[in-house]
Structure formats: structure tokens, C-alpha cells
From TrEMBL:
Lineage, opening ranks: Bacteria, Bacillati, Chloroflexota, Ktedonobacteria, Ktedonobacterales
Protein known as: YbhB/YbcL family Raf kinase inhibitor-like protein
Pfam families, alphabetized: PBP
Organism, as annotated: Ktedonobacter robiniae
SUPFAM superfamilies: PEBP-like
Signal peptide as annotated in the record: none
Length: 146
């Protein structure tokens, strides 16, 4: 399984329009090679360089396994959005307090739908997907405020 973005290459800077210094839209993503037996997808976007803990910027689950693109500003993705560490649902982009931070987009192909309500926390989603992961993909971007 692969996760890429037309906006930035793996390991490269995320354009500022996808951050708190820009429009704060989620970047467009492309998903390919999802296992045939997948019943749903989950996406977690985290900053492992945050000072207090691994900080969650975006959490989506129960995306259809047929999803090939997540377009910038796309409203309805066909899945459920969990609560990020800003305390809201949806995407909140990079906004590091200092230095260069890494932003890890992790995609999970699952052999089931999680069937969780909107607004779940990352810990609950990760606990529920245990034992159901068929494949994973990762895309990492960096960001440093100017």
C-alpha cells in the first residue's frame, strides 16, 4: 500500500498553505495498492517532535477502501473524523513552536469497519484497530515556521 501527496515528497517540507501559517487546509493525498480484502481505511497524522507528547493533527477512520484521493479542502470523505489534540474534529496543520518538526501521515488498511461514532480519541481508535491491520503506509513531511 502507498500513501503519497502531489503537494510534497516524502521527507520534504510541507508547503505553508497546509499549515497554521497558511490556509490550514489538509494536503491532497493519493492512496494506492490497498489490499483487496480491506473493509476500511484509517488515517492518523501526528507530530512526534512535539514537546509534551506525540501530537495528533488529524484522525479519520472508516474511510471506504476504494478511496484513492483525498482532495484539498474536501469536505465529506465518507468516513468519520476523530478529535485531534487541538480538541476539535478535522485537520489542523503544522504549527511548531520552534525548530523543524516531522509530520507523519499513517494510513491503515483494515479487515473490518471500526463502526465507531464521530469524535473518538486517537487512543480509542488505535485500540479498536488492533488485530485488524492488513497493511500500512506512511508519508512524512517536515515544517519549520519562518
Amino acid at each position: 500500500m502507498k500513501l503519497t501527496s502531489p503537494a510534497f515528497e516524502h521527507g520534504q517540507p510541507i508547503p505553508s498553505q497546509y499549515t497554521c501559517d497558511g490556509a490550514n487546509h489538509h494536503p491532497p493525498l493519493t492512496i494506492s495498492d490497498v489490499p483487496r480484502e480491506a473493509q476500511s481505511l484509517a488515517l492518523v497524522v501526528e507530530d512526534p517532535d512535539a514537546p509534551m507528547k506525540v501530537f495528533t493533527h488529524w484522525l479519520i477512520y472508516d474511510l471506504p477502501p476504494s478511496t484513492q484521493h483525498i482532495l484539498e479542502q474536501e469536505g465529506s470523505l465518507g468516513g468519520a473524523e476523530g478529535v485531534n489534540d487541538f480538541g476539535t474534529r478535522g485537520y489542523k496543520g503544522p504549527c511548531p513552536p520552534s525548530g523543524t518538526h516531522h509530520y507523519v501521515f499513517r494510513l491503515f488498511a483494515l479487515d473490518t469497519r471500526l463502526a465507531l461514532p464521530e469524535g473518538m480519541k486517537k487512543e480509542d481508535v488505535l485500540a479498536k484497530l488492533k488485530g485488524h491491520v492488513l497493511a500500512t503506509a506512511e508519508l512524512v513531511g517536515t515544517y519549520k515556521r519562518g
